[in-house]
Amino acid sequence: MPGLRLAGIAKSFGSVHAVEATNLDFAEGELTALLGPSGCGKTTLLRMIAGLEAPTRGAILLGEADITAQPAHERKFGMVFQNFALFPHLSVRENVVYSLMISGIAKSDAMATGARLLDLVQLKGFDDRRIGELSGGQRQRVAIARALAQEPEVFLLDEPMSALDAKLREDMQVELRMLQQRLGITTVVVTHDQREAMTMADRIVVMSQGKVEQVGSPQQIYHQPENAFVADFIGRANFFDGVAEAAGVRIGSVLLDAAAGAGFRPGTPVSLACRPEVACLIDCTSPGTSLPAKVTFVRDVGPARDIHLETEIGRIIVEYARGETDQPFAVGQETTVTLPASGLHVFPRAERAAA
């Protein structure tokens, strides 16, 4: 199956630049998530890939073929829309085989394909039901089966989980990912849900204001953010404003040991980020900076516990996994928090302001 490549793709609506010039390669058989807040350009980018929007400039390549000007119905791409776009007057089976029937495939062949796909998405026996008789998760499976009916070279999904409740959404994320892995089909998913992207994707493209901020695996995106926007948007982070020095980052009167700040000229205004699970209150073995702290709030959130602290450099949240410590923490308690040097990320101050 040929690879998909975007070469300098951009889209403007009048004076509004919805997508800046973008270069991306989608590896064969990989699931890529386009992730970002509302209005960042991710859906516009997906619609250009699908052929539903014409790019202002740039090219879309499938293997060696330039498909930029190819109409959507001529691209062998399957697409699942946010609202599923199913036909309520047709049965489940009729929805799945609709595209096959209008393309002239023999009815017997179309029905056989429909039966196979319904079995694939675990809807065997639902053939004659109406769409209105299905749950949200079942409707999503019908939409997926319909999109797969044409044996697409690329599978596109636009916010496919947004209409589902939280529990069903998590279940469907796993099911869809397992199905994609089983089929080995190149897949692009648009989502604003970072947990969804981290659960499903081989690779995440983080977008903001029409630009690609970072591309990488879920682990790279989370543990090695390339700028303040990514650090702030993916997961949680404690942020502090300071000034770079040769030995670290100074915040007020405190000099933090931050190896990541070594690349900045002394005197440069910077922002420093630290993940809550990296900050440490007990058994701190990694080299770093220790600060006196007072507990201001304790929150138990299922599998984790958040300890909110007040320190001389500002508020800090420390997260512990359930069972990681039995030590009680009470509001007003005096303690010491350590910020490991290896867990600190330093960015230009302007990036933090923009994020």
Account of the protein in words:
The structure is a single chain. The model has no long low-confidence stretch (mean pLDDT 89). A hairpin with a 2-residue loop joins strand 15 (288-301) and strand 16 (304-311). This protein has helices spanning 42-50, 92-102, 107-120, 136-148, 166-183, 194-200, 218-223, 228-233, 349-354; strands at residues 4-13, 16-26, 31-35, 57-62, 65-66, 77-80, 154-158, 186-191, 203-208, 211-216, 238-245, 248-251, 254-256, 269-274, 288-301, 304-311, 314-321, 334-340, 344-348. The protein is elongated and about 75 Å long. The chain is α+β, with helices and mostly antiparallel strands. Helix content is 25%, strand content 35%. It has a 6-stranded mixed sheet, with helices on both faces. The two termini are 38 Å apart.
List keywords for this structure.
19 strands; alpha+beta; six-stranded mixed β-sheet; five-stranded antiparallel β-sheet
Q: What separation lies between the terminal Cα atoms?
A: 38 Å
**Low-confidence spans:** none
Number of strands: 19
> In percent terms, what proportion of residues is strand?
25-35%
What is the tally of helical segments?
9
Mean pLDDT across all amino acids:
89
- Residues in helices, as a percent range: 25-40%
Question: What characteristic shape results from the CA principal axes?
Answer: elongated
Report the biggest beta sheet as strand number plus sense, adding barrel if it closes: 6 strands, mixed
Chain oligomer state: single chain
Structural class of the secondary structure composition?
alpha+beta
Order of helices and strands: EEEHEEEHHHEHEHEEHHEEEEEEEEEH
* C-alpha Rg (nearest Å): 24 Å
Strands side by side in the biggest sheet: 6-7-8-3-9-10
